[in-house]
Amino acid sequence: MSLKKPTLKEIVEVLETLSEQGFIDVEPQERGYDLKPMYDFLLLCGIATRAGPHYWLRLLDPEVCEFLAKILRDTLEETT
After folding, report:
1. Is residue 16 part of a domain?
2. For residue 45, what pLDDT is reported?
3. CB under 8 Å, gap of 24 or more: what pairs does 3-8 form?
4. Contact 60/46 with Cβ under 8 angstroms?
């Protein structure tokens, strides 16, 4: 089965969940989407760190995560 690339909407959902909860525990293949590149980006940028098995992430920089979610949410609203 080939995984789909996440849409901007799915990326915003993940960032908002991470911002609200301080962690996210979904798998890198969630609802048929390949979230691994986005998770890797969050790790490499220092926004999150691994917390447990698989790709569970813990938020390190809430302000950056919230700002990134806002930018992408605004972009999404402008394009719809």
Report:
1. yes
2. 92
3. 3/29, 3/32, 3/33, 3/34, 4/32, 4/33, 4/34, 5/33, 5/34, 6/33, 6/34, 6/35, 6/38, 8/72, 8/75, 8/76, 8/79
4. yes
- Residue 72 near residue 12, CB atoms below 8 Å: yes
Assess whether pLDDT exceeds 80 at residue 66.
yes
SS3 state of residue 32: coil
**Average of per-residue pLDDT across 39-59:** 86
Give the mean pLDDT of the chain: 86
CATH code, domain with 41: 1.10.10
Burial group, residue 52, by CB count within 10 angstroms (0-12, 13-18, 19+): exposed
Residue 16 has pLDDT above 80, yes or no: yes
The overall pTM is greater than 0.85: no
What is the span of the domain harbouring residue 68? 8-79
